[in-house]
Amino acid sequence: MMSAKPGSKLAASIRGSALGRLLFVTRDGRIIVGQAPNPPLYACVGFGLAAAIVRGTAGAWLGTLAALAFAYWALLEIFLGVNLFRRILGSLGAILLVAAILR
Q1: Which of 10, 21, 74, 79 is the most interior residue, by most CB within 10 Å?
Q2: Are residues 16 and 28 located together in one domain of the fold?
Q3: Owning domain of residue 1
């Protein structure tokens, strides 16, 4: 996790902005500006790449696993995201997944 150091220009800028506080300050007051992706997102990319290579039924199953991993990631972010930015990111991911499925 990349957090802004207390007293830094970045921390002061975020704390001085209502939008910055809303998006990047956690429930316990920490400022989180970056975080490594969750393991389900890595799984999604791996299954997606494998699905692009493998054809037939196995490729279809790999594509389904990629979609399920992405859905799981989105739900984790929506309900357990460290700040509002991550929760919005998960919500957008869920919306894009639903739109792709309904397409």
Answers
A1: 74
A2: yes
A3: 1-34
pTM listed for this prediction: 0.85
Query: Hey, how many other C-beta atoms are within 10 angstroms of the C-beta on 2?
Result: 10
Residue 83 is encoded by which pair of tokens?
């700040």
- Quote the CA–CA distance of 62 and 69 in Å, as a whole number: 10
pLDDT per position as a tens digit, 44-102? 999 999 999 999 999 999 999 999 999 999 999 999 999 999 999 999 999 999 999 99
Do 49 and 95 reside in the same domain of the chain?
yes
Is there a single domain that holds both residue 16 and residue 46? Answer: no
Q: How confident is the model at residue 37 (pLDDT cuts 50, 70, 90)?
A: confident
SS (H, E, C) 18-69: HHHHHHHECCCCCEEEECCCCHHHHHHHHHHHHHHHCCHHHHHHHHHHHHHH
